[in-house]
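Could someone model pantoate with this protein?
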Amino acid sequence: MEIFKDIKKFKNRRKEIKKTVGFVPTMGALHEGHLSLIKKSKLENEITIVSIFVNPTQFNDKNDLKKYPRPLKKDIKLLSDEKVDILITPSYEEIYPDGYRYKLTETDFSKKLCGKFRPGHFDGVLTVVMKLFNIVKPDKAYFGEKDYQQYVLIKEMAKAFFLDIEIVACPTVREPDGLAKSSRNLLLNPKERKKASLIFETMVKNISDESVKKILNENGFKVEYVETINDRRFVAAKLGNVRLIDNIKISRRKE
Ligand code: PAF
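Reply:
Sure, complex below.
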């Protein structure tokens, strides 16, 4: 696997690639969810490029950014075992030469659900993804359905800005007890980890959003939202200091 820290060097290398390119942007702390995106990219493209960049502009909470896991050596081993062709790991200075003076804002859906509780979060996500798209110039880019709101916003951004990039969604990968795989699960203590599966267990029940919220709050979660939009139920809740999100496609809900 080729590894590039330097964007200029990567861009020179990119010019030589005439094959189809699949791109998997990540913030590292890789798990099976990321590996499923990489596997799909490898199936559908001749070259797969992964980025690892813990993007400070999408963290509205400084402590959350500080605590975010960064097991780079382990990640590199996983990626080379998966036979990823190229990894880019740029620095903040390289990605933000403008010091984040320029940013991309969506004014509607990004203000709902997670956007309501994490001001500026989706500005940071959309800005960094647009920068990474301009650097990598992929044919297809892969995102997990676990971050469904993010996936929709990126798909619609690609359309709004006439990007010739196909945005591909991949199903959420779950632990045996139903908990959605997430880099943040590493931050749960054993007791919290055991309890965390209650999110999935409760959200799939044929009960109202209000009832899901009540059950989770009664069990020690601090629920930010439980909301059904169209045919999808979205949940965000904190367990201790760890913020967990999940969503699931539903057919019909009633109490
Ligand atoms: O989903 C993530 O890991 C991040 O939001 C992304 C898309 C890599 C942008 O930093």
